[in-house]
Amino acid sequence: TYTAATGTPGTATFVGSSVTGWAPPQNRVYNYNRVLPSGGFTYKFADSFSLYANYSKGIQVPGTDNLYNAFYFPRNSPQANPAPETTDNFDLGLRYTTSKLQAQVGPWYTRFTNRLASAFDPDTQQTFYRNLGRVDKYGIDGSVTYRPIREITLYAYGSYLKSEIKDNIVLGYCPTTLTAANTTNNCTTAGAPIYALTAGKRESGAPVYTFGGRAQADVGPLEIGIQAKRTGPRYFNDQNLPNLQCTATLVNQVCPTAANTPTGFTGTRGFQYQVAPAKTSAYTQVDIDARLSMAWAGLNDKTYLQLNVQNLFNNYYVGGFSGGSTTQFNVPFVQIGSPRAVVGTLNVAF
Predict the structure, then answer these.
(1) Is 105 helix (H, G, I), strand (E, B) or coil?
(2) How far apart are CA 22 and CA 103, in angstroms?
(3) What is the DSSP letter of 70?
(4) Fewer beta carbons under 10 A from the terminal one: N or C of the chain?
């Protein structure tokens, strides 16, 4: 994160990869361009079976906030020139289609180069940006829709996701001058990079698996449905480690405990403690809905009563969180899933 703090306009102080101070008014031009080819085919080799495959290349340029943050760094420095994220996307699969049954299953693979991610911290009102380098994501998706009779529709789906960060990510740099107060076991060389051990780990925020389904019945003026979704665990940080807090100020991205500092350390030591596990628990959400057309009462068919019940079993779960992070000391803000809710509406059309 690159923080603008109060200071003398036009001056900035650089400490490792962080900066404080003011950036002077300036103009910078960033050009991002790529050729983005795409293509695919579908081959029908039987009455009900077809095979498909697709390839596409994509690009995501750094956001405006990320580019504004780069203004604090010298024009030719790496921090002043955020790289765009590019993707190579592959998927193939098999489809089966009849009058009553449609099914599809297939693997997919996406290769990210300069994988961009961000997380907003409501306490500090800062957005943390990170470049994960190369990340490979791959998995398999499947779905089935079955309609045995016109009034009944059944649908099921599932997916498994694997992601792998290829490299260790630089969190920052050791001080340019090492003293007894700022030397830690991970920083024994002045100016050396500090790495997060992300190589081979899953990217945070993405569930390991999801699956679910829906059943719907249309009986005269009444439509009723029930659906369920199971969401697998998600890691809070890119090192896939438990989330920690430290009783002292972090030094060189670590808590200055006795284990993390040399015996001659003269700074303030502390101890670290766990505040959250490495990943969220899997959860299941079940919803039901019903709609009764009022045409039977002499009204038009666009007037109806609607009833929705969300989170039928009132499960307590982490629905989402404010992006992932690379360090295990940046505990994310989570959004607790809504409790059971019953909503009834009357829609009247003239």
Answers:
(1) strand
(2) 58
(3) G
(4) C
Helices (H), the chain: 64-69
With contact defined as beta carbons under 8 Å apart, do 114 and 83 qualify?
yes
* pLDDT 10s digits, 246-281: 999 999 999 999 999 999 999 999 999 999 999 999
Residue 149: partners with Cβ closer than 8 Å, 6 or more residues away: none
Burial of 323 (0-12, 13-18, 19+ CB in 10 A): buried
In DSSP terms, 49 is beta-bridged to 96
User: What type of residue sits at position 152?
Assistant: I
Answer for the pair 309, 341: CB distance below 8 angstroms, yes or no.
yes
Fold of 12-347: Maltoporin; Chain A (2.40.170)
- 186 burial level (CB within 10 Å; 0-12, 13-18, 19+): middle
Place of tokens 């997060």: 196
Burial 159-184 (b: 16+ CB within 10 A, else e): bbbebebbebbbbbbbbeebeeebbb
pLDDT in tens, 6-28: 333 333 344 444 555 667 788 88
Q: How far apart are CA 179 and CA 167, in angstroms?
A: 30
Q: For the chain, which residues make up each domain, given as ranges?
A: 12-347
